From TrEMBL:
Transmembrane regions listed in the UniProt entry: 37-55
Organism this protein belongs to: Drechmeria coniospora (Nematophagous fungus)
UniProt similarity note: Belongs to the SecE/SEC61-gamma family.
Subcellular location: Endoplasmic reticulum membrane
Protein's name in the database: Protein translocation complex subunit SSS1
């Protein structure tokens, strides 16, 4: 019984220890790296927005043809 309780206590303790080690190893990006990441995200937003717009632009007339014919 005591082994089970000890095992249940060890799991969160190890998780917390690993999390602290991870945060301590992380570092903030410098200005150049931050700008590159921001540009990549902006390009991704633009591409996904364009794809969504094109799909919606094609979907509306097709939907009107199918529903309007019924």
């Amino acid at each position: 019984m005591a082994d089970q309780v000890e095992g249940l206590i060890d799991i969160p303790r190890e998780f917390l220890k690993d999390g602290v080690q991870f945060v301590n190893k992380c570092q903030k990006p410098d200005k150049k790296e931050f700008i590159k990441i921001s540009q990549a995200i902006a390009i991704g937003f633009l591409i996904m927005g364009t794809v969504g717009y094109v799909v919606k632009l094609i979907h509306i007339p097709i939907n009107n043809i199918l529903v309007g014919a019924a």
